[in-house]
Amino acid sequence: MYAYRYVQDDAITDDFVQDAFLNFWERRGEFHALTAIRSFLYLSVRNACLNWLKHLAVRQRNEMDFASFLQEEPEDDFILEDMVHAKLYVAIEELSDRAREIVLMTLKGTSNPEIASTLGVSLNTVKTVKLRAYRVLREKLKDFNWLLAMLLIP
């Protein structure tokens, strides 16, 4: 009951009390009076509870900080992302009609067999056109490859 006043969780308080008795048992030769044993047990349980509460407070604070960090997206990130997307789509627009169509369908998540079926071409044609288009895009966007990789990886 003493531990429960600090930590309202029976499982946790049971562990603290058990640890206190275990520590007492290991050091039982050091105690010569019943009052010393009682004080030791109460202090051990109280300190374990206070340490647990301190740890809980730190963990909760860190979780809140981490959650707010994950939610924050500075304006600069949006501006940079928009700039890279704009450069990517400008480069795609400079591709041939067929290559542009295949690359845009790929960016929308369409599979190679679906592209081949939709466009009425062979699967090998889709793969070849896509390979050539990616080479052209890589060359045109070579200064932005690292940014593209970061933005396009799911």
TrEMBL record:
The keyword Transcription regulation applies. Signal peptide: none annotated. Pfam families: Sigma70_r2, Sigma70_r4_2. GO terms for biological process: DNA-templated transcription initiation. Residues 92-149 form the HTH luxR-type domain. Keywords: Sigma factor, Transcription, Transcription regulation. GO terms for molecular function: DNA binding; sigma factor activity. Coiled coil: none annotated. The keyword Transcription regulation applies. Belongs to the sigma-70 factor family. ECF subfamily. This is Sigma-70 family RNA polymerase sigma factor.
